[in-house]
Amino acid sequence: MRQQKISLFSGVMLALSSLIGSGWLFGSGAAARVAGPAAIISWIIGAAIMILIAFNYVELGTMFPESGGMSRFAQYSHGPLLGFIAAWANWVSLVTLLPIEAVACVQYMSTWPWAWANWTKHFMANGAITTAGLMVVFLIMIVFTLINFWSVKLLTHFTSLVAVFKLLIPSLTILTLIITGFHAGNFGHNTTTFMPYGTRGIFEAVAVSGIILSYDAFQTVINMAGEMVNPQKNIFKGVWISLTITAVIYILLQVAFVSAVDPASLAKYGWHEINYASPFADLAILLGLHWLSLLLYLDAFVSPFGTGVTFVATSARTLAAMTRNGNVPAWVGRMNRRYMIPRFAMVADLGLAMVLVYFFRDWSKLATVVSISTFVAYATGPVTAVALRKLRPDFKRPFNSKHLAWVAPLSFVLTDLVIYWAMWPTTVEVIGIVLLGLPIYFYYDLRYNHVPMRRQLKGAGWLLVNLIFISGVSYLGSAGFGGKDVLKYPYDFIVIIIAAIFFYLWAVNSRVNGPDLEVAAQVNQDVKIENE
């Protein structure tokens, strides 16, 4: 029904509600510890990488405007095995976002400075969620799910309201900190003091400080495409508008954070030791801005809350889309008849999120899991977009840019680099989590689908070898990225870049002209191009 559709404005608000979550509360502080003032460059690099990656998915999303589409695209071009790996990796990252946002709420609650709130201090111990805090995290995730449980209309009304609030508070924080606490000397007086930990720190911060996590939610628009008004136009507009607004806010937040740190503390301890439990709220208190700290403690609940609610919708639709690929039980993706909501998928996501937060009770560890599993999935986007142009040049493409010829290989190379930047042993740990889904896939394939193994390995072999290769380079790479320093910096980057070009060419040439393209054609036939 029309009233259940998502407008461009609601889509942008939905994306912003996802994009401006716990990343703004913790990301600036974490990035400054890793890269110093040069963390500003890290946010710019992160935005550029995400915009390039989104470029590939805008073409795919407008070609195939279906709910949970990012779980389907790779299967169209390279068959079911690659489709499953991409979908599983993306789903793991989305489900992990639910406990991340709940943990962010609880972590800020645990630092409330008021006497009446002493009971919240037991929610955290040694930087990790306690058992008492875990119960609150579970409760928050249940509320996230219930808000999504009835209709898209309720979801969009909630997130539009939250998104306005989430834009105002960061903007107010930027202006207030720059006006009242700006110390120009914090940015350094030369290249060495601006980049106290060298260029390596800049790249490391992109992967391990929540920067990728903060920009990742552009895919909300892609995954909700099946429920958008005029998706052929609004997917493109929604992605670019939301990413541009978010990038400006995050970069300015980093500038404000760097400028507001006490120069005396900085001179005594250095950036590595500037570690605030509630970064912006702590800065506000130190500057005597108690009214701002109150707003920040409030927003520290609202921002993650809005993001968590949105990602319940996105992750559920991603899991529901995986059932259409035939590799997950069909009942998981069953839609509620009245509201057309995948309720079983939401409950399954909630269960896995609870398991994840039970074992990973630290915000930064969860953020790294999200970043790397996301980029394993993103490695398939550029390949799929180019492969489909070769396989089906006659498909209708509302967004058909000549720039894809260079954007696709560049974004693929950057994807491999980001995975490497996560540092050993995190790289191999997250890659292992992604590959844990393979037994489920092969069970369903052997029992129901019976796709020839040769065809499956043709389509997915390049990614499996690529992941093994990155793990090996991560182990042997420079000490700054956790490796054994056999490949010293920046030669480790050169090895990754050259290899990534090889894997990209292999991947495009591994395209599969199979039955999945018939399904893709059915989705694409309903696409309308303006002035067609």
Shape: globular
Mean pLDDT: 85
Helicity range of the residues?
over 70%
Low-confidence stretches: none
Range of strand content: under 5%
Structural class: mainly alpha
Please provide the count of β strands. Answer: 2
The Cα radius of gyration reads 22 Å
Main sheet specs: 2 strands, antiparallel
Strand ordering within the main sheet: 1-2
Order of helices and strands: HHHHHEEHHHHHHHHHHHHHHHHHHH
Distance between the termini: 25 Å
What does this structure look like?
By secondary structure, this protein is mainly α. It has 24 helices and 2 strands. It has helices at 8-19, 22-35, 39-63, 73-78, 80-109, 131-148, 152-181, 191-194, 198-208, 211-215, 219-223, 231-260, 263-269, 279-286, 290-324, 343-359, 363-378, 380-391, 404-421, 426-435, 438-449, 453-476, 491-509, 516-524, and strands spanning 124-125, 128-129. It has a two-stranded antiparallel sheet. Strand 1 and strand 2 (128-129) form a beta hairpin. Helix 5 packs antiparallel against helix 15 (290-324). The longest helix has 35 residues, at 290-324. The radius of gyration is 22 Å and the shape is globular. The two termini are 25 Å apart.
